[in-house]
Design a protein that fits this description.
With about 270 residues, this protein is α/β, with parallel strands linked by helices. Helix content is about 35%, strand content about 25%. The chain starts with a strand and ends in a 21-residue tail after the last helix. Pfam families: ABC_tran.
Length: about 270
């Protein structure tokens, strides 16, 4: 059996009197694509924020590669191999694509302000060349060589999403958290992004935890799917089992149990 790279145990989170998450538990197998679905307000992004360290849960524990990371800061989790993209783009709009991606390598730098002045003697030059080589690999993989010198803020929305994914990949992560990577994209852009996610999972061996509303994409590329409902884990199973669950069909897909299965389900936007 494949070992779990991420274990979330009984996580609860509240903002004042509002409960965002209530006793949520699940595990993610190493090398898998794990999707989280549910309507707006279900606690999906709050869950990712707890995993990445932006939020500290009120109770429960999060284990990454068997290490309890519940109290660690986001940069410490990045050092352990956890990458992240955001629902709202978090690029440096005034910087080039290349510089934005290089930011993703910052935590891997060994040279500092003390050794930096000794650029040649300290090995800083060799280190910089190695980081640039890794960044170029990511740029080639995501097919954005033609915009590498472009200012990030001038790019189309779909390309900026791809650049943000590139920056997360530059972290050299073992686990990558994707918050609605295909939101606002047209059909062609969604197909490209789905292909990149599958490739980074299969070719690079990166485990993916993804929030996504496009049910067609979720069911096509996910190994497991968890449905959050008002901050609670409604079901966590293989895609076909989730689609067959009566409550999911009724509450999220608008189907009665006796209804026939739709040939294709495109989105959960109407309930989100």
């Amino acid at each position: 059996m494949t070992a779990s790279i991420l274990n979330v145990e009984n996580i609860s989170l509240a903002f004042g009197g509002v409960k965002a998450l209530t006793d949520v538990s699940f595990s993610v197998k190493e090398g898998s694509v794990f999707s989280i679905i549910g309507p707006n307000g279900a606690g999906k992004t709050s869950m990712l924020n707890c995993i990445s360290g932006r939020y500290t849960p009120n109770s429960g524990n999060i284990f990454f590669n068997n290490k309890n990371v519940t109290s660690l800061q986001p940069n410490d989790r990045a050092d352990l191999g956890m990458g992240r993209t955001f629902q709202n783009l978090a690029l440096f709009g005034h910087m080039s694509v290349l510089d934005n991606i290089m930011v993703g390598r910052h935590h891997l730098l060994k040279n500092n302000w003390l050794t930096g002045p000794l650029y040649w003697a300290s090995g800083a030059q060799k280190e910089e060349l190695e980081h640039r080589r890794k960044v170029e690999e990511v740029i080639d993989f995501l097919e954005i060589s033609h915009i590498r010198k472009s200012i990030a803020g001038t790019l189309s929305y779909g390309l900026r999403k791809r650049v943000e994914l590139a920056r997360a990949m530059a972290l050299n992560p073992k686990l990558i958290l994707l918050d609605e990577p295909m939101a606002g994209m047209n059909l062609e852009e969604k197909e490209d992004m789905a292909r990149y996610i599958l490739d980074l999972n299969e070719e690079f061996g990166i485990t993916v935890v993804m929030i996504e509303h496009d049910m067609g994409v979720v069911m096509d590329i996910s190994h497991e799917v968890m449905v959050l409902d008002f901050g609670k884990n409604l079901i966590c199973a293989k895609p076909e089992q989730v689609m067959a669950d009566p409550y999911v069909k009724r509450a999220y897909l608008g189907l009665e149990e006796a209804d026939s299965e739709p040939e294709e389900v495109n989105t959960l936007e109407e309930v989100s």
